[in-house]
């Protein structure tokens, strides 16, 4: 299940890249910027700002699930079944209501990836698999990495590594670069904010490092979660002392994905304002340099 294929990307690994976004994630990060990627199933996105007065085509398509009231469209999301998504796929003329998620086989995905092979070769780019968490679909990820590798295409993965090692290991020979999140090393705080296990992530990072894979550590700095000096020190110490890595990317928190929660009718539980703390970012950059890491600050 994919929710996007983005061509000509320059932010998800070196060079010009095609990014394949797979649905499904085992974490529930409060600040997730792609909440539509969490479920392994399709989702309905509804933007009331685009909804046309008097139009009831979606209600006609799935009566009893969508209803137009005096206050606008009401969707009973608990009643939505797989068969309803096909009925809603292209029903909305204004695109106020859209279906997020598409079943696509590896052949179809690879046909898109291969289309831009000349650009990869000239720019040092390639294919990146992102998500969600790509390794939540280990067989699909494996096939995409393997086929790209066989075509001489550079491969990268954006991953939180919160999966069993057995989901990752088969793909190792075919992945050139891991863009791996290291959100926190405190198990209690990590659990509270992501509903996951920091120990699983750190164990997988150590195994990747031992396997000799190239890893870029990415640290999203989130207010009230890890945007403080003590957390930054512990994260950078783990990366520098426990892993064989050279690069670390510091990602200051932003709220660009906040509106997606409204589209999904879900609460947004993280800070409502972007991180604005130049002094803290300067500290993080300086401390990482002192630990021998190459630092990139990314907005």
From TrEMBL:
One example GO MF annotation: 4 iron, 4 sulfur cluster binding
Coiled-coil residue windows: none
Required cofactor names: [4Fe-4S] cluster
Keywords assigned by UniProt, alphabetized: 4Fe-4S, Iron, Iron-sulfur, Lyase, Metal-binding, Oxidoreductase, Pyruvate, S-adenosyl-L-methionine
One matching Pfam family: Radical_SAM
Boundaries of every Radical SAM core domain copy: 11-290
Keyword RNA-binding in record: no
PROSITE patterns per the UniProt record, alphabetical: RADICAL_ACTIVATING, RADICAL_SAM
Metal-binding keyword on record: yes
Record-linked InterPro entries: Aldolase_TIM (IPR013785), BssD/PflA/YjjW (IPR040074), Organic_radical-activating (IPR034457), Organic_radical_activase (IPR012839), Radical_activat_CS (IPR001989), rSAM (IPR007197), rSAM_sf (IPR058240)
Domain of life: Bacteria
Family from the record: Belongs to the organic radical-activating enzymes family.
Protein name in the entry: Pyruvate formate lyase activating enzyme
Organism of provenance: Sodalis ligni
